[in-house]
Amino acid sequence: MRNVIPVLAALLAVCVASAVSCDQPVPGSEGEFRAAWTAFTAPSQGPAESRTPDARQQARIAALGHMEAAVRTEPSNAAYQTSLAYMCLAAGSYARAKDASTRAIELEPHGPLPHLLRGQAEAALAQTDPERAAERIGPALEALDRAARLDPTNALPLLEGAGVAFEVGRNDLARARIDQALARTKIVLYRLPIPFDLHEERAASVNAWQYAQYGHWLELLRRCQNASRGMLRFGAGKLQAGEVEAAEEHSRKALGVARLVGMAEPNVIITANAGINMLEDAYGGLLQVAEVQESREAERWRGELGVLQVGRAQLFGVLEAYTEELKKNPPTSIEGMLKAEAKQVEGILLGIGLTPAADK
Q: DSSP readout, 137-169?
């Protein structure tokens, strides 16, 4: 169950009805926009075993042609530019993603999502030259910091920046952003402008939306997890050096990040799973500190780890129940779908102590 995130993504995207062929594109920019997302999400309409890396990449490339046509027809549409930026990122076309996100920012300067996508593109470009990545990461962090300023209660852009900084060895920049993130109240996961009615059959449309949107969210959660793990690595180093109080401080910061992720909005199965995994890592770090201190807190952290194991098992059961419910009653709206999934995981979050009033 530790590596359940990829499994969750696959299961949530499994076609819950018979496979539906891609809609035929219709003339005009809106038709090309819909055709792009239909092509991008085509792997969600077949069996899970058909979603190979090659099939996914072919779908992304096919989608790019349609999205670029939509942009050519209506270049001032921010949703089209944002979608193009994301699709280029997913396809590995980082320079094109940078250009599209820059254009989206020009059209929607106060929207945090285009800035976040620009940051992701800049980070990917910097990492194409690993030896110089630490020197070239500035533009990525600037874009993510801009997203953070535009969304001042949301810790997500700061944690994304911390994850990027840790990836290139800029630990100083990462730690400063984690401190800023922990001063904020929540994580809100940004939504891509994906149509919710790409297919005539409702279940197929649900699959398509989840395939694309949850894939984006999983990448955001991965970087948040990198930020938490970076703090735990610092803590382990401090503990090895005999700096026990500093080790505990770093582990508690990792715990704070884990709690933010576990209570991310929307509360869905993949966010709950990411939170459980990160809590497990943080509790492990705090347990090591307590054992060195010979503190009675060690029993607390052992108990918390046991609770997480129960929560993880329950989460798998929730996943099975939720996918069955999607088969029987596909939701009619994004909000309805997310609300139903949040209701499924609510009890698990409470059971593992992820409540605003819980002791951090």
A: -HHHHHHHHHHHHHSTTB-HHHHHHHHHHHHTT
- 359 domain residue, yes or no: no
pLDDT value, residue 47: 83
Of 196, 220, 227, 187, nearest to 86 by C-alpha is: 220
Question: What integer is the mean pLDDT of 184-211?
Answer: 96
358 domain residue, yes or no: no
Range of the domain at 67: 4-351
Count CB neighbours of 264 within 10 A.
25
CATH code, domain carrying 102: 1.25.40.10
What's the pLDDT score for residue 15? 36
Average pLDDT over residues 181-206: 96
What DSSP string runs through 164-189? HHHHTT-HHHHHHHHHHHHTS-B-BP
Report helix, strand or coil for 333: coil
Asked if 83 contacts 32 with a C-beta cutoff of 8 angstroms, the reply is no
Number of domains in the chain: 1
The pLDDT tens digits for 218-255 are 999 999 999 999 999 999 999 999 999 999 999 999 99
